[in-house]
Design a protein that fits this description.
Elements (H helix, E strand, L loop, with lengths): L11 H34 L3 H6 L7 H4 L8
Length: 73
């Protein structure tokens, strides 16, 4: 029984569409992550020092806690 060769190169238009889609999707994901991070940062900045201590944070940790991850899901 022969193995069917199914690895044909993709047409050029398909490759360009995939690249554009990936770039656009990555940009949209980045903007969404930054928006969520800014909302988290604002919410944490509105908490008192005692409330921050209750969740294990202090004022210096707000920037780290609200930073979006580099690898988006």
């Amino acid at each position: 029984m022969d193995i069917i060769n199914s690895t044909r190169p993709a047409p050029f238009g398909a490759v360009i569409n995939t690249v554009i889609t990936n770039v656009f999707g990555g940009a949209v994901s980045f903007v969404i992550a930054e928006y969520k991070a800014s909302r988290t940062r604002k919410a944490l900045e509105n908490l008192s020092a005692r409330q921050l201590a209750d969740i294990g944070l202090n004022r210096e940790d707000i920037g780290k806690a609200s930073r979006p991850t580099l690898f988006l899901r």
